[in-house]
Amino acid sequence: MKKHLLFLGAPGAGKGTQAELLSQTNSYLHLSTGELLRKEIEMNTILGQEVKDIINRGELVSDELVLKIVRQNLDKDNKGWILDGYPRNLSQANSLNDVLIEINQPLELVFYLDIPEEVLIKRLLLRGRKDDTEETIRKRVEIYKKTTEPLIQYFKDLSLLEYIDADRDLKTISSEIKQKMA
């Protein structure tokens, strides 16, 4: 069974939900970069203070810093791990790959949760977050397409990519993911 996984997909495709279910079932680490950054800030670590300062200045956390936090979490003893929403671009993918080779935990499988844009927009609007207006959602999807979609081809070229139709019910998606991990 594959135990070093990555979930790719647009915001609202269900990456976090599927990664969380899988991590609970298999006792894998679920590494969502947003969660990891928030945890560092909460724990008031040196890295957390650095991240907090960057965010307070309204800047984006650098690729180097995110990679440092991801690596720190992968270095712990684990039965497996799922990266959720990272890497977001080719540069991050290459840096991550170097680290994974170094720590001898190469990526084994990438799930691309594919979902039609209109379904995605409806799903995110139903989520009801304050910042989820149709305009902001379309902007986030556009940014995702520009930066993250090249990763789909990148992982396809490495023969690591598995397409998942994410416009179905939770259980169906979940069981397809488990079958493809075997």
UniProtKB/TrEMBL annotation:
EC main class here is transferase
- Where would you say this protein principally sits, based on its record? cytoplasm
Q: Which residues bind AMP?
A: T33, R38, E59, L60, V61, G85, Y86, P87, R88, Q92, R129, R140
Gene Ontology terms for molecular function: AMP kinase activity; ATP binding
InterPro entries, alphabetized:
Adenylat/UMP-CMP_kin, Adenylat_kinase_CS, P-loop_NTPase
UniProt keywords, alphabetically: ATP-binding, Cytoplasm, Kinase, Nucleotide biosynthesis, Nucleotide-binding, Transferase
Binding-site residues, ATP: G12, A13, G14, K15, G16, T17, R127, R168
Can you say where in the cell this protein is located?
Answer: Cytoplasm
Q: Which BP terms does GO give this entry?
A: AMP salvage
Q: Is Cell cycle a UniProt keyword of this protein? A: no
The record's CDD domains line, in alphabetical order, gives: ADK
**Region of interest called NMP, as start-end residue ranges on this chain:** 32-61
**Looking at the record's lineage, which domain of life comes first?**
Bacteria
Q: In which pathway does it act?
A: Purine metabolism; AMP biosynthesis via salvage pathway; AMP from ADP: step 1/1
User: Is Kinase one of the keywords?
Assistant: yes
The reactions it catalyses are: AMP + ATP = 2 ADP
Cellular component terms per the entry's GO annotation: cytoplasm
Cited Gene3D superfamilies: P-loop containing nucleotide triphosphate hydrolases
**Could you say which EC number(s) this protein's record lists?**
2.7.4.3
How does the entry describe the domains?
Answer: Consists of three domains, a large central CORE domain and two small peripheral domains, NMPbind and LID, which undergo movements during catalysis. The LID domain closes over the site of phosphoryl transfer upon ATP binding. Assembling and dissambling the active center during each catalytic cycle provides an effective means to prevent ATP hydrolysis.
**Which function does this protein serve?**
Catalyzes the reversible transfer of the terminal phosphate group between ATP and AMP. Plays an important role in cellular energy homeostasis and in adenine nucleotide metabolism.
Assembly with partners or alone = Monomer.
Family designation: Belongs to the adenylate kinase family.
Q: What is this protein called?
A: Adenylate kinase
Annotated organism of origin? Prochlorococcus marinus str. GP2
Encoding gene (name): adk
